[in-house]
Amino acid sequence: MATQPIVSIYGNSNSGKTELVVELVEEFVGEGLEVCTIKHSPSPLSLDQEGKDTWRHKEAGSRMTVLATEVETSFLVPREMKLEEVEDMLERLGGFDLVIAEGYKDGDAPKVAVGEIDPRDNTLHEYDGDFFALKKKINDLISVNHLLDDLPGLDCGRCGYDSCQELAKAIYEDERELSDCVVREQRMVDLKVNGEDVPLEYFPAQFVEGGLKGMLRALKGVDDEINRISLEIRD
Ligand code: SF4
């Protein structure tokens, strides 16, 4: 399961959020990472303008309008989107090494508080001006996300942690190992659909394995002893 690390920088107006985002982007891009930024504003601003062609498309009822010019492509969605929805869209676009959002105070994304503000849920760092301490936190987050790519993403709790993310963190901190993921260890079937891994729990995996083996054994020329099956179905 490919995931992209995301961190949301929040704070009150004029707390220095944008300056910090710019500094982080420059730092991580300088290290060769592909960075995406998202700006959330509480004001009802729009890049669209009344009477323009894109505005007319929207008024006619289009769910999303794409403005493509020689220098830029803008996706205009005529409603507020939660950070999780934007994340989903970015995953579909191919994913980034790091996504930095500015201004989202709520939601499940890991957050960094800037300035005097009550910490929100999932705040992983309260920024006190120590840029390198913050950078280390974000690098830790990126490393945990890479480990998460090797876990099934089922959040089943059978490893003793509530989520794969928590086990990935424990592995990163050298407290646990990848083999502590019960589902991964018991996995007998690797299923991919359109090139993407589709994790299967133990019992569905057993069902697929048993069904396929039973069907194949009934075919002429197939040994009773089946150790490995490869099957690819194309459109
Ligand atoms: S056992 Fe594996 S799939 Fe289940 S929560 Fe733990 S890491 Fe995730």
Helix content: 25-40%
The unique ligands bound to this protein are:
iron/sulfur cluster
What is the terminal separation in angstroms? 23 Å
In the CATH scheme, what's the topology name of the domain at 6-44 and 80-149?
Answer: Rossmann fold
Structural class: alpha/beta
- The percent range for strand residues is 15-25%
Mean pLDDT: 89
Radius of gyration from the CA trace? 23 Å
Major sheet, described briefly? 5 strands, parallel
Give unreliable regions as ranges.
none
Description of the molecule:
The chain has about 240 residues and is an alpha/beta fold. Among the domains are: about 5-45 and about 80-150, Rossmann fold, CATH 3.40.50.300; about 185-215, no CATH class. It is built from 7 helices and 9 strands; from the N terminus they run βαβαββαβββαααββα. The protein has a 5-stranded parallel sheet with strand order 2-5-1-6-7, with helices on one face. Strands 3-4 form a two-stranded antiparallel sheet. It has a two-stranded antiparallel sheet with strand order 8-9. The longest helix is centred in the middle third of the chain and has 18 residues, at about 130-150. It is globular and about 70 Å long. The chain binds iron/sulfur cluster. Iron/sulfur cluster binds next to α5 and α6.
Descriptors:
235 residues, 16% strand, alpha/beta, two-stranded antiparallel ribbon, Rossmann fold, 34% helix
